[in-house]
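Lecture 7 notes: from sequence to structure.

We start with a single chain of 173 residues. Read the sequence below before looking at the structure.
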Amino acid sequence: MTKKKMALFGVAFVLVYTIGWFMGDSSAVGRVNAMHQASPSTQSSMPAVAPVAIPESTTPAVAPYKNPMSWAVYRATRPKTDTRMALTAKLSDYYNYDYRDLVDTYWAVSFSDMSHKESADATGYIRKDTPDGKKIFDILKDGMSHNMILESKYKSNDGSNTVEITKFVKEVK
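Now the structure, written as tokens:
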């Protein structure tokens, strides 16, 4: 096998294995072995790669906290009491309904489902001058999305997905 073919095989292995790992697919290495064994030029010059089991605890986007309800149920029931939910949060500039004129005193935070299995599509608001508001801003000020656990509740039945953030619980890394 030429060095060029070995390099290409190595790149293919890394890509398939990495994509498989991110998708939680521990059989990715088995597919690389199948590719390797199917190529007649590689059968004698390169050993097969042993399959590696990927522990469940290392698969990405798995919430360490189990939400008390799905996002669909949260949005449908519109709880008026503090409800703790694991979510992915990002600073937003969307100030709607009751918060339209409160840009100077509230942070807007867009929510999405941390497991990426369902759409959360809500915007939460928290006062800028509160300890929890300051903690949330300190985490989100880099402009990136961050996984966290927050408590929030709906203030009204106006049909919007606008919620009040009542407590910062923790960032989930």
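The first strand starts at residue 83 and ends at 92. Keep this in mind for problem set 3.
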